[in-house]
Fold this protein.
Amino acid sequence: KLKFATPKLCVGLLLDQSDQLYGIAERIVAVDSVDFVARQLNLVRPMMESLVPNPNEEVLLSLDNFYTNVLSVTPDMQYLVYGCVASRALDFSMIIAAVSNTRWDVSELQSHHSAYVDIIVKGFETLSSKIELSTKDIHLSDSIRTLLWDQTIYNTFKALVQGYSEGGKCSTEGRALMQLDFQHLQIKLEPICNLHPLPHCAFVEGYIKAFYLPENGLEEWVSKHVEYSPKQVISLLSVATHVSKKAKNVFIKVKKLFFAERRTANSSYYKEMSTTNPVQSGDDGEMQIP
């Protein structure tokens, strides 16, 4: 078994400070460093293979395994590293509460957006200032900046849909207000994030507009859109007064079935992964890879 010492963070490294965006500067340096090392290792691979005594299939196989299963995932690592920042960049619980507490059972069409939109826009403006301040001493590439905004928008839009689903009663005019709010939000966020158009909009728009689908169209929508949780779909169906109670129960069963199948598939996948490539913790505090 190969043993690797568990890495330990530097004592002076602060990853829980919101004013420093959870160590965004250090994260950027770390990701860039790993990316640089990975690119250099890819360049020297032919030389490394040429130095292996011939024939030695075991060493070549281990080397190939390293490049295939370890080095190849370094580009994906940035999503996890920067995702830790994006998932805490805004107070998403507050956003969900602000959206769900908005009155959606209005009886008249509204001409002005809801208050929660201003809360979100203010949060993005503050985040933009924090990004500039936290990265003033390092180079922040356009790709990393785009990734940060992309992940933050993704989490924000998920919070939006969750808030809509927890909003209780909703009229046709209330659904129109949701559309008005979201359109105004897009207009405000595009210049802040410098993304045109904003990503992940279809996730929110799809949930809002599904309210207007006829009964047969809603059945197809429920079975196809697995990105929404059963609770979110149940909430949507509960406010769709044009859908019969019998049809709603059928749709809910279909949704739960699809969700259960997906969960089972994911569980089987991770179980297989843990069986074929287990990572265990030794008694001496080291990670052991068989």
Notes: The beta strands are 2-4, 280-281, 287-289.
